[in-house]
Design goal:
This protein is mostly helical. It has four helices and two strands; from the N terminus they run ααααββ. Helix 1 runs antiparallel to helix 2 and helix 1 packs parallel to helix 4.
Length: 158
């Protein structure tokens, strides 16, 4: 059985699209956790996100290599040329879907980054409030009487 000329590239594109769909689903889940204030649950997702990212990079590199092998330029320009060729016309829709999903992934990732920054800012403000409260905590002097804001050492000093 002979392999149609565009099938290797079409298969790589289909694999990449499937991985990107999984990645976008994971990013949406990540964002939902951040919105719900469940940032602690994100640690469990790091390995899966990293693995998917590595697989996506490998598929994109394989696609680039196949484009080069066929004499097309690298990147989007090469894909745009390939999908207009007789071998690539059947993959036009998949390529468009991949571009749309990549834009979604980028937007989701940016939003998650902003949500993480808000959580970090909130945590820093909470920590500052707690440290200020410790600094203002009531202490007792040698006479047994309560003194507010006595000198003493700060939490960070040895």
């Amino acid at each position: 059985m002979t392999i149609p000329p565009g099938s290797a590239l079409a298969d790589l594109l289909a694999q990449e699209l499937g991985l990107l769909q999984s990645f976008v689903t994971l990013l949406r889940h990540e964002q939902a956790l951040l919105v719900d204030g469940k940032a602690d649950a994100l640690a469990d997702m790091v390995k899966e996100k990293t693995d998917l990212g590595e697989q996506l990079a490998a598929r994109a590199a394989a696609r680039e290599s196949e484009l080069a092998r066929r004499g097309y330029p690298a990147g989007r320009a090469g894909m745009d040329q390939w999908i207009t060729s007789p071998d690539g016309t059947t993959s036009r829709r998949r390529w468009q879907q991949l571009l749309e999903l990549a834009a979604q992934a980028r937007a989701l990732n940016e939003t998650s980054g902003k949500l993480i920054a808000v959580h970090l800012q909130h945590n820093q403000q909470t920590l500052n409030t707690l440290l200020a409260a410790v600094d203002q905590a009531a202490t007792y002097g040698p006479d047994g009487q309560q003194r507010a804001g006595a000198g003493g050492r700060s939490l960070g000093s040895a």
